[in-house]
Structures are given as C-alpha cells and as structure tokens.
Model the fold of this input.
Amino acid sequence: MNDRYALYALAFSMLFVSAFVLLSFSEVKMPLPSIDEQEKIAETLSAARREIGLLKLLADKYKTQKRGLMQKMLTGEWRIKPEIVNQYREA
Done:
C-alpha cells in the first residue's frame, strides 16, 4: 500500500512539474530575424546543401577510381616503381 502511495505521489509531482515547465516556456518571447534575413539564411543553407551534394558525388567518383586502380595493381596489370613505394615509406 505504501508503494502505491509513493507511485501516485511521484506521478502527480511529475505532472505538476511538466505543466509548470510548459506554462513557463510558453511565456518566453523568441526574437525572429526579418523576412529578408530569413531569405538570406535560406539561400546560404541551400547553397551549402548543394555543395555538400556535389562533394558527395566527387567522393563517390574518387572511390570508383580508386577501386579501379587497386584492381589493376592487384592483378598485376600495373606495377609501381620501387622508388615511389620507398618515398611513401619514409614519410
């Protein structure tokens, strides 16, 4: 019986706190940028989104190219000069 009372008390207190936070938050005034500024922000975000898309395409092309080059090296179709390999071992 005591556990049930504690559970009810906990539920009531959580409900009270939630309602208080919701009421307090609804009174907060949020400043908004002007329409012109919002449009500039939207243009900037759109440009960034386009650039990210182009960079993803470029990365995919590089991955495809790398896969082809690795295939040629692994099959022995292409050979790498030892001086080039040594150059990267030193770095």
Notes: The chain has one domain: 2-26+34-90. Residues 2-26+34-90 form one domain.
